[in-house]
Amino acid sequence: MAIGNVKAGYMGIADIDGQKIRCTEFSVNPKQEPLFYDHIVGLRDSTPDVDGGVFQGKADIGALNAQKIIWRPGVKTFQGGMSFPLTDLSGASLFNYARTGSNFILSFQYDCNEIGRTYSFCKINSYTFSVSAGDICNVQVDIMAIECVEQIIESVYEEVEKLVTWDDVKLDALGTPASSFTFTINNNCKPIYTAGVNEERKLSPAKIRVGMQEITGSMTFYNKERDLSFMDSITDPTTISLAAGPLETELNVIFKPIEISGRSGPVLSTLAFVGVDHALGDDQ
User: Fold this and answer.
1) Which domain, by its residues, includes 84?
2) Phi, then psi, of 137 in degrees rounded to 5
């Protein structure tokens, strides 16, 4: 059996503020679960078959109380992941939305057909940047949205883009040559539901609230001489300067104590950090 119209490579193109992003993964979909009230229904009437069908002096008659008869529909959101390689034309706008927690509109065209979706009132729940020596820069984003409209989107994109690779990354942290670097912005987003809008919004949230922003990450570096003198000031805030194509930022962090392990081959040490103060700076 032959399968026609097979398309390899990128699965679709996202459009954010007119900036086109070729995605390797996109799974922002509706999320809604029915909620059941088993504490009201209670346990089943049937009892276990113990000692020949008698349990605590009562025979197991096999009667079962119908379950999940008290329920309600759950709230509805649109949530999921989006992954893409960083290029010289894409990625900066999403980072800024992650930094500020602002709303944005996302349109996505699936490569498999002409169907597309437009998501409104989007917020970035988490944003992860990662790169390793000799590799390309990758971005993974978790998105939450309130509304979605399915429509035909014609978004053919043929711009030539250069992937941002390790040699394009400028990383200034402790003056140590790194072999990999990753950081995550976690906005701890939470849907907010209010009275008076359920009928109109059909159980969609009134807004999405950004919680306490957290910055975490780690860097791996060559540590042949096991020089850990910088650990003397491990509790002092340190600024990591990062430039990777269109993404430029400074991370104000505190490094966590390092773990030393014995191994064969090159000595690599992983230094974890957590953001402090205005972790992403004030002037971005």
Assistant:
1) 12-30+76-275
2) -85, 130
